[in-house]
Design goal:
Elements: E1 6-14, H1 21-39, E2 44-51, H2 55-63, H3 68-85, E3 92-95, H4 99-115, E4 118-128, E5 133-135, E6 155-164, H5 170-179, E7 184-185, H6 187-198, E8 204-205, E9 207-209, E10 216-217, E11 220-225, H7 227-232, H8 234-239, H9 245-251, E12 256-260, H10 264-279, E13 287-290, E14 293-295, E15 298-299, H11 310-321, H12 325-339, E16 346-348, H13 350-380, H14 392-413, H15 417-438, H16 440-443, H17 450-471, H18 476-486, H19 497-501, H20 532-549, H21 575-580, E17 583-594, E18 597-606, E19 611-616, H22 624-627, E20 631-635, E21 641-643, E22 646-648, E23 651-652, E24 654-657, E25 660-663
Parallel strand pairs: 1-2, 1-12, 2-3, 7-13, 12-13, 14-16
Antiparallel strand pairs: 4-5, 4-6, 6-8, 9-11, 10-11, 14-15, 17-18, 17-20, 18-19, 20-23, 21-22, 24-25
Helix pairs in contact: 2-3, 6-10, 11-12, 13-15, 13-17, 13-20, 14-15, 14-17, 15-17, 17-18
The structure holds 5'-O-[(L-methionyl)-sulphamoyl]adenosine (MSP).
Residues 11-14, 22-23, 25-26, 51, 231-232, 234, 259-260, 262-263, 292-293, 300 line the site of 5'-O-[(L-methionyl)-sulphamoyl]adenosine.
Length: 677
């Protein structure tokens, strides 16, 4: 039995426009998955492409006074350019206007006709061109498309058409999804699908009267095949169906098909598996409907002018930071995968992107590499030393690499990209902590500590080597830049996931390159560049973090009142007012992340005479384990507040270093509950 090809698909995109950050996220997520599977040594087929036979594509070409063929031929390279700039490593790009695809569609149509699954009837009903979807009378509200994201006017269509007997598949679909509960994800969308099917499936109209574009119905050229029937079949065309039996046997069924929530229930989880059942083919192993991106809380739309191009964004980040544009693009990929819980909606803002750039990339990852390399150059001439025996902290760090590497795989297999990055960042944080604890700059002052200094520098650089491989699926250019600075001879492209998991593979004697920050920090206070609106957003970037340090939680929790006034309108506290503040030292005894809020930590703190619960916006900089046992300074008499439904009875104090929160702590250990004066 030949090895199964791990087959991943994105939806194929309508070419009535070019990609924006929203629809680029499916492609980035699929790319991360494809790159990870390749690192695991699997044979991968990652496909994306364009859905060209749609009425709206035809209409836009007409509006531009072009032939539809010329229009699509002109715009498809622009999609490819964006994917190239976004470091998308697809193996196949399918266009539904290709001959190989037309043959597949014609064959499938004929086969389903022969089986009696497609029949002719008169269609009377509503059609939304924007969504390319037929709707029942009962679904249309005030003549408008019922999709809340669309709400455009629907058209009445009354024509002889062909229908796919979808109604006959309801029970089979339900049985299948009940017997194979892992196929549909996430779980809450699976339930939506089951309810949709249980409500009763209607036969689907799969043709339209010919309007000068589309794949003609076999033996009935007055009609064209409905764009969804045509588009879904692209997944079979790519897998080699009817063209290459050997390839198809290895590739089908698809392992993971990703798409947005808008096209999950009706098309990918109902029509598509029913078509496959009708054709006698296996249902994909995983169909996953992710959430939508909004921009600053608003739906992405051309008319609102917020359909930001990923390329423009990366250029903007590059200009603000001075980073290479490929690095900035990787930062955008990182942000998209880190910020959203894949499956749920997420909000995009320049401020949040800059926040992550500075905190996660410049501070955490950048620092781990940069300051270690600087010390290596200072104390060891830039040559990787041979390590000695590791102490406890070093063993904890290397032990963590193996377990987190396994967690990364588990998370990505569950399509939990943000959690996978969380696991990698646990290694990075531990590496930075190891540096703090070992303080190589102090070891360097003592000749007797020379061997220990070697061990520390080696261990951290070997950790960076593992991290470079682990981040490669998310940020391929960043991984390469780290690799180049480490000066490792073996190409990064030949590394496997095991090379990341196994510690100690960095060869002593390796000559590293001159350290150069890969992510120059973005100064959020002196941002002059960027579009007007974006400048405002960048300025905001420094505030949410400032606010969250000085509050129980992040901005949404109405903490603006607590932000300090501007210098020119400085107000003074009287001593009596100051005395009202009950500042105390507290010791963190338990810490966990607040579910669904990746900036928040829920802490239990010991205040000597009592125990309190505090919600702090610290999770970007401190892991729960970093917090446990730590002494912090808190305002103990702040009015309790609920943050994301979790009670918070106090607020921690932290320095705000360009958006990064650095917690205050007493100079030496003091009894919990001690007063701060
Ligand atoms: N052509 C169909 C798909 C056919 S697949 C056989 C289509 N194309 S689309 O261009 O409109 O959408 C492509 C993908 O982009 C969909 O998965 C859709 O959910 C996704 N997104 C569009 N806007 C989005 C956001 N704002 N956020 C996240 N994904 C979004 O539908």
């Amino acid at each position: 039995m030949p090895e199964k090809t791990f087959y991943i698909t994105t939806p194929i995109y309508y070419v009535n426009d070019v990609p924006h950050v929203g629809n680029a996220s499916t492609t980035v997520a699929s790319d991360v998955l494809a790159r990870l599977k390749r690192l695991q040594g699997m044979d991968v087929l990652y496909a994306t492409g364009t859905d060209e036979n749609a009425i709206k594509v035809h209409e836009i070409a007409q509006a531009q006074g072009m032939s539809t063929q010329d229009y699509v031929d002109g715009i498809v390279p622009r999609w490819m350019e964006v994917w190239k700039a976004m470091h998308i490593s697809y193996d196949t790009f399918i266009r539904t206007t290709e001959e190989r695809h037309k043959k597949v569609v014609e064959y499938a149509f004929r086969k389903l006709m022969e089986k009696g699954d497609i029949y002719k009837d008169v269609y009377k009903g509503w059609y939304c061109v924007s969504d390319e979807t037929f709707f029942r009378e009962s679904e249309v509200v005030d003549g408008l498309c019922p999709n809340p994201e669309c709400r455009k006017e629907v058209r009445w269509v009354e024509e002889e058409n062909y229908f796919f007997r979808l109604s006959a598949y309801g029970d089979r679909l339900l049985e299948y999804f009940e017997a194979n509960p892992d196929v549909l994800g996430p779980d809450f969308r699976r339930n939506e699908v089951l309810s949709f099917i249980k409500a009763g499936l209607k036969d689907a109209c799969v043709t339209r009267q010919a309007y000068g574009w589309g794949i003609p119905v076999p033996d009935d050229p007055d009609k064209v095949i409905y764009v969804w029937f045509d588009a879904l079949l692209n997944y079979l065309t790519v897998a080699g169906w009817l063209q290459d039996d050997e390839k198809f046997a290895k590739t089908w069924p698809a392992d993971v098909q990703l798409m947005g929530k808008d096209i999950f229930v009706r098309f990918h989880s109902t029509l598509w598996p029913a078509m496959l059942m009708g054709l006698g083919l296996a249902v994909p192993k995983k169909l996953f409907g992710h959430g939508f991106w909004t921009i600053e809380g608003e739906k992405i739309s051309k008319s609102k002018g917020n359909a930001i191009s990923p390329i423009k964004l990366a250029e903007d980040i590059a200009a603000r930071s001075g980073a290479d544009v490929d690095i900035a693009m990787d930062a955008l990929r990182y942000f998209m995968m880190r910020e959203a819980t894949f499956g749920l909606d997420a909000d995009f803002s320049i401020g949040a992107l800059i926040g992550r750039f500075n905190a996660d990339l410049a501070n955490d990852l950048g620092n781990l590499l940069n300051r270690t390399l600087m010390l290596l150059h200072k104390y060891r001439g830039g040559i990787v030393p041979a390590p000695g025996a590791k102490d406890r902290e070093g063993r904890v760090l290397t032990g963590l690499i193996e377990s987190e590497a396994d967690d990364v795989i588990a998370h990505i297999d569950n399509l939990q990209f943000s959690e996978a990055l969380g696991a990698i960042w646990a290694v990075i944080s531990r590496g930075n902590k190891y540096m703090e604890v070992e303080a190589p700059w102090k070891l360097a002052k003592d000749e007797e500590c020379a061997a220990r200094l070697d061990t520390v520098l080696y261990t951290v650089l070997d950790t960076v080597r593992s991290v470079a491989i682990m981040v490669q699926p998310f940020m391929p250019c960043v991984a390469q830049a780290i690799w180049d600075q480490l000066g490792i001879d073996e190409p990064l492209s030949e590394q496997t996931w095991d090379d990341a998991r196994i510690v100690g593979k960095l060869k002593p004697g390796t000559k590293t390159a001159e350290p150069k920050p890969i992510f120059p920090r973005i100064d959020t206070r002196s941002q002059e560049s960027g579009a007007g609106s974006q400048k405002g957003q960048a300025e905001k970037a420094s505030h949410p973090s400032h606010e969250s340090h000085m509050s129980h939680g992040p901005k949404e929790e109405k903490v603006e009142e607590q932000v300090q006034p501007q210098a020119e309108e400085k107000q003074y506290l009287t001593f009596d007012e100051f005395k009202k503040m009950d500042l105390r030292v507290a010791k963190v005894i338990a810490a966990e992340k607040v579910e669904g809020a990746d900036k928040l930590l829920k802490l239990q703190v010991d205040l000597g005479a009592e125990q309190r619960q505090v919600v702090a916006g610290m999770a970007l900089w401190y892991s729960p384990e970093d917090m446990i046992g730590r002494e912090v300074v808190m305002i103990a008499n702040l009015k309790p507040a609920k943050i994301r439904g979790v009670e918070s009875q106090g607020m921690l104090l932290a320095a705000d270093i360009d958006g990064e929160a650095v917690l205050l702590k007493p100079d030496k250990e003091v009894p919990p509950g001690s007063t701060v004066r």
